């Protein structure tokens, strides 16, 4: 049985994505923040807060859709666990090889 999409939640997810994109624009734009007026600084900070809200909202919506699934397959959890361990150990080994450890 196919689930029907809830358009209100999908619209909320689109807003969250838009807020995240705005946050990336704010973060990576080279503005001279100290030379701005206080109203411009407040508007930029408000957009940055909105971006953080967008990230949290997106994760909440994702969790909502995951919890609504009828059955959580154990092999999916095992696959996710094995994949996470593989990448964690690979990154750790690469870091130990390529990042020098300084001893004083």
Task: Give the arrangement of secondary structure elements.
Blueprint: H1 7-28, H2 38-67, H3 74-98
Helix pairs in contact: 1-2
What can you see in these coordinates?
Helix content is 74%, strand content 0%. The protein has 104 residues and is mostly helical. α1 (7-28) crosses α2.
Provide the gyration radius in Å: 21 Å
- The helix/strand order is HHH
What is the oligomeric state here?
A: single chain
Number of helical stretches of at least 4 residues: 3
SS-based structural class? mainly alpha
β-strand amount: under 5%
- Residue stretches low in confidence (pLDDT < 50, at least 5 long) are none
Count of distinct strands: 0
N/C terminus separation: 64 Å
Keywords:
104 residues; mainly alpha
Nutshell version of this structure?
This protein is 74% helix and 0% strand. With 104 residues, the protein is mainly α.
